[in-house]
Amino acid sequence: MRPGSVLLTAITGLIWGVTAMVVIGVTLTLITGEVALPQATAAAVAGSLSSLIFVWRQSSTASGGLPAWALSASILFLVLMAATFAAPFGLPLNKEPVWQGLALIAFIFGVTSANHLSLSGASLGAMTRYEREVVYICIAKGIGFVLFTIVVALPFYVMVMTSLKSQQTLLANPLDLSIDFSQGLYGLFRSYVELFTEFNFGRYLLVSTFVSIATVVLTLAFSVPGAYAVSRLRFPGQAFLARSVLLIYMVPAIVLVIPLYAVFSQLGLRNTLTGLLIVYPATTIPVALYMLQGYFRGLPSELEEAGLMDGLSRIGVILKITLPLSLPALASVSLYVFMIAWNEFLFAFMFLDDPDIFTLSRGVVSLNSSEVPRQHLMAGAVIATVPVLFIFLWFERFLVQGLTAGSVKG
Fold this sequence. Notes:
Shape: flat
Radius of gyration: 29 Å
Number of helices: 19
Number of strands: 0
Order of helices and strands: HHHHHHHHHHHHHHHHHHH
Structural class: mainly alpha
Helix content: over 70%
Strand content: under 5%
């Protein structure tokens, strides 16, 4: 038995115990509204002993008995309950017993699983450098995953829960983010109903949908022939154009918006959707062209040459050969452009003054006043976020495939 190996194993269990206790305790507070006091010290002790038992059991040559994970989970439960006097989250057992039970199960499962992933194959004897590095990497990956999940999920959870509250509840306790089912289905979604009946959010959705789809169509109409020309045709300045197509992104949008505001005001394009449909494609065409040219370069040129020999024009080759083979890239570019247009705020905020043509992001900002309750603002943010979130999840495979296409050739 090496002291260094024992110490590393104990520290691993300590880290997972404290991390799981804090995260689950805070989550319990958010869900129930009861202020939990996670017992981090007890969780550290229980996690350390659990990890030591796990490694000892999996390296033991004795047969029979509980598996390593089961024995580890049992020790974790017993030590935690004994050290906290059966109150691992600092709450009496009669307060939210169901949620406390689920939280305890989540804690045991989380720590046991983390120990299994981090210490699988380890032993309390001599650990090689490779084995130690595997433990370090597993800990770093686990902590990073937890932090990333919190950063992504916590704001969205707060946003959704706040949108389901009534004004009286928010004034009484702004930190209570539990769900109150006693107010009924209409009471829960009252903010959403009022957004569409009193704040014209249905029109904002239609305007944003129109602008986003139109931006996608205009972007593809210009970027497809541009990307094909750069990747397939030979002309003076081709290499320079291919390398400099993204130079527009070196200029911050805040620098462009002021001169564009002055020019559009003089041309009568400010406070019109036409102005947005000029600016949005201008900012999305370069990145779409850059993405598509890499994909086009990866396609076999022999197929297009065969089409030309069979009498197809260059446009016919693009329409009948190149584009059908490029559907994953086109889908990823369309999704990327749609998300940019849907979420864009700066130009919409500067150019649009008429509420009848507000985009969704501009409409959400218009709610940010002392006259509009906070739950309505959060409900508007949810409405602006959820559609593009579902679209992204649905087309994620196309996005990944399109972004990685052409990474070897071209």
